[in-house]
Write a structure and sequence with these properties.
The protein has 603 residues and is of the alpha+beta class. The strands form 3 sheets. Strands 1, 2, 7, 8 and 12 form a 5-stranded mixed sheet that branches. Strands 3, 4, 9, 10 and 11 form a 5-stranded antiparallel sheet that branches. A two-stranded antiparallel sheet has the order 5-6. The radius of gyration is 37 Å and the shape is extended.
Length: 603
């Protein structure tokens, strides 16, 4: 542990050493044209390189950086705090209670510092090699110019001006050669330091792996293998120390430490930018949370929403940092993929918690069991469930409303709630507005409201109890004089809810001879028919149907729709549930007579 603490303080010693040598470097550069001074400097550097040990090699890197550019700023190596390391999501399953005294945290900090130092030295070596190539190009160019001048001088008479230029070029060539020698010496020293940095990194990665394996073995025997804590611990250890098959030991070592280093390096700034988790009191002040009957701060719904929003913020920060780097760095690609998978799992858990809460509370609020006076509360409860059960809608709602609560408190909550509904759920916003106007006119909520315009939106039973309107038929002729009939169906009202809950649309056509044709559109095909403009998606009033050939005779056409019990995002091609569905009544029957061969196609 003493060695780890000493290495953790190494950057400060490195900076102090660089400051002590800065004046000497400037004096050396001012006298770079003096051969005696240059010879002395090379001897000093060679002595230091020959006697470099573990500490001297690492302390020398900043001095080398400032040797050719005295005013160049010092390289910044990130300093990580133990609390930031312990707060990473994949280290929380290891139950680190005292980060400053944890061996895992200290080894990870030393590992990160060794990796940052290696990166700085590699960049410095690349820069020196670029300067060396540039100096060599200048030297070759000066040699060509001197050869041309000597050729011209042999053909013409010389004068004092030409001899002065020739002596100046010789001095410049000598300085350039001296510069090349200095850069080569610096590259040799940096290469030696790079070798030592790689050895330090390999040592720290081995320590980190051993610490993680020891802590994993100690915790795994105390946890139930079927518990969530054990699953989280297994996932964390598998990502930080992946078990690979089909590769050599050296490849395996390089793979797992690169993945772990990338995770720690990228996740610390992402978690800092994401900030702290939201407090339960801030969520409980939101209108849809209140309507969903979440009156307990320790409710599973509130906890799941807080976890999902925090993971969403981390994912967005990581995506913004790594989008342009994942193509060239497989380790960072793994980090981004892991973070996005974590968000997907959080979304699934939240949706399941919302579904269970709805089933449990709906028994106590359903009007068929508790009376008609509970219908307004039950409708608000169902309306809130529709938003909270869709990952896209609830994330958009919570993000916007939590920002309002953060800056304005509860003062602008109602207006912001209405504005969000108007943008994301226009049908619900219009129904609420009509209901408020009718209620303000003094009519109240009596029996006359049932079926009127002021009626609050009913999401449970409102759609599948409707009788769909008949199909829409359009007749035309194509270029070959064939009769073409287009068939489309009217969507149920409200339109936004229909697109959120529809599973499939089934159209049946049959004639008097007994022939029967059934055409069924899945939800994915219906979603693909939705068009967009500058303001967003356009929810059409009609859905086109596929085409088919019909024989002559009298035909009848009707249709019905299969709806999901839970609404989702209207643009989501997948339904919220797998098997929970209801079927509407059959529509009014439309009849027509086919004289010749007609062709049905989507409008």
């Amino acid at each position: 542990m003493t060695m780890s603490r000493r290495l953790y303080q190494l950057p400060q010693k490195q900076i102090e050493r660089a400051e002590r040598r800065q004046n000497y470097d400037r004096m050396k550069l001012d006298n770079s044209l003096n051969p005696t001074t240059a010879t002395t400097t090379n001897a000093v550097v060679g002595t230091i390189s020959a006697n470099a040990n573990n500490n001297t090699a690492s302390l020398l890197q900043t001095a080398i950086t400032t040797m050719t550019q005295p005013k160049q700023p010092q390289a910044i190596i990130a300093t990580h705090f133990p609390v930031d390391i312990a707060s990473l999501p994949l280290l929380q399953p290891f139950q680190i209670k005292k980060p400053a005294e944890s061996s895992i945290v200290n080894t990870i900090i030393n590992e990160q510092h060794a990796n940052d130092t290696l990166t700085v030295m590699m960049n410095q070596e690349e820069k020196l090699r670029g300067d060396l190539q540039k100096a060599k190009n200048e030297d070759s160019k000066d040699n060509e110019d001197s050869n041309n001048d000597s050729t011209k001088a042999g053909k013409s008479t010389g004068n004092a001006k030409k001899s002065y230029k020739k002596s100046t070029k010789k001095q410049s060539n000598a300085a350039n050669i001296q510069k090349i020698k200095e850069i080569e010496c610096q590259i040799d020293t940096v290469s030696l330091t790079l070798h030592q940095c790689r050895q330090n990194l390999a040592q720290f990665t081995g320590w980190t792996k051993a610490m993680l394996q020891a802590e994993y073995s100690k915790l795994a025997v105390t946890l139930d293998q079927n518990s969530q804590d054990y699953s989280d611990l297994e996932e964390a250890f598998s990502f930080l120390c992946p078990r690979l098959t089909g590769v050599t030991n050296s490849d395996h070592e390089e793979y797992y430490h690169e993945q772990r280093l990338a995770y720690v390096k990228e996740m610390i700034p992402a978690t800092k930018k994401a900030g702290e988790r939201n407090f339960p009191t801030s969520l409980m002040a939101l209108p849809y949370i209140v309507k969903f009957q979440c009156d307990d701060p320790e409710s599973p719904v509130v906890a799941a929403l807080i976890d999902e929003m925090h993971q969403l913020a981390i994912t967005e920060c990581c995506r913004a940092r790594l989008e342009k780097q994942i193509a060239s760095d497989p380790a960072k690609f793994k980090v981004l993929k892991h973070v996005e998978e974590m968000l997907d799992r959080k979304e699934v858990v939240t949706t399941e918690v919302v579904r269970k809460h709805y089933r449990k509370r709906s028994i106590k609020l359903h009007p068929d069991r508790n009376g008609e006076h509970m219908r307004p509360i039950f409708e608000e409860f169902t309306d809130a469930r529709t938003v909270l059960s869709s990952s896209r809608l609830r994330q958009s709602y919570l993000r916007g409303m939590l920002d309002v609560f953060k800056y304005y408190g509860t003062a602008m909550m109602s207006e912001s709630h209405d504005a969000w509904n108007k943008k994301h759920r226009p049908d619900v916003a219009d129904d609420e507005l009509r209901g408020r106007r009718k209620h303000g006119s003094g009519s109240g909520r009596g029996d006359n409201d049932v079926g009127g315009e002021g009626k609050t939106l009913k999401l449970e039973g409102g759609l599948h109890q409707q009788i769909p309107r008949g199909v829409v038929l359009h007749h035309r002729r194509d270029g070959k004089r064939n009769h073409v009939v287009s068939v489309s169906v009217h969507v149920l009202r409200p339109i936004h809810e229909f697109y959120a809950r529809v599973r499939s649309v089934r159209v049946e056509m049959r004639d008097t001879s007994g022939e029967r044709i059934v055409v069924e559109l899945t939800r994915r095909e219906i979603v693909e028919c939705i068009k967009f403009d500058r303001q967003g998606p356009i929810m059409a009033n009609e859905i086109p149907i596929t085409e088919t050939l019909l024989n002559p005779g009298n035909w009848e056409v009707f249709w019905c729709a299969t709806l999901d019990t839970v609404g989702t995002d209207p643009l989501n091609p997948e339904n919220a549930t797998k098997n929970e569905s209801v079927t509407t009544r059959n529509s009014a029957v439309a009849t027509f007579h086919v004289v010749g061969t007609l062709r049905f196609e989507g409008s």
